[in-house]
Design a protein that fits this description.
Oligomer: single chain
Number of strands: 0
Order of helices and strands: HHH
Distance between the termini: 49 Å
Radius of gyration: 18 Å
Length: about 90
């Protein structure tokens, strides 16, 4: 592998590291908002689980997906995110 290729890979990996840091920050921000909603629902005696909301999220994310991720893969990622959000304790 040439030094130029090594440098390009290094630079691209640095960009990925920055994106990963933003993703972690935003996922935790999302979890905080979900906890606020959970608290409001609990206080209002509303059901915590809303399958209609999940479908709304899936439709929204696929409507804004410009690739290269496939819609099915993005949906799978979000199913995992939503599952993790449900496990967060307040």
């Amino acid at each position: 592998m040439s030094e130029e290729a090594k440098q390009q890979i290094y630079e691209l990996r640095k960009k990925i590291d920055v994106i990963d840091a933003h993703l972690v920050e935003k996922l935790n921000e999302r979890a905080g908002l979900a906890l606020e909603i959970r608290k409001i629902k609990t206080e209002s005696k509303l059901p915590l689980y809303d399958p209609g909301r999940e479908e709304e999220i899936f439709k929204k994310i696929t409507s804004i997906n410009n690739g290269p991720l496939y819609d099915d893969d993005l949906r799978e990622i979000y199913e995992t995110i939503l599952h993790a959000m449900k496990n967060v304790e307040s």
